[in-house]
Amino acid sequence: MPIGAGDLDRKIVIQRSTEVPNEFNEPVLTWLDFVSRRALRRDVSDGEKFAAGQVGSSLAARFVIRSDTQTRTVTPVDRLMHEGHVWSIHGVKEADEGRFRFIEITAVKDSD
Asked: What is the pTM of this model?
């Protein structure tokens, strides 16, 4: 089933780490917003988590966003912000919905 504009009903922000100098001119790693996009969120089923060997209290999801020159540079070194939570990016790939149309980001957050 093709993805429509109405399916991208979640807001996500991809953040990139960068070094900025502190008051002593020493580099400090900080996260800055890189790109903000609308996304489709698909939570990963418990069976998929079990097959992937994930144990513990966490939530895994796949976020599908439109592919563009910025979103195609997202990697697991970046992180994802969604609904006030930090998600660790575990994988980024071209989505099944069409060549160069969408990017699928697999991410995990600790459950609260």
From this structure: 0.81
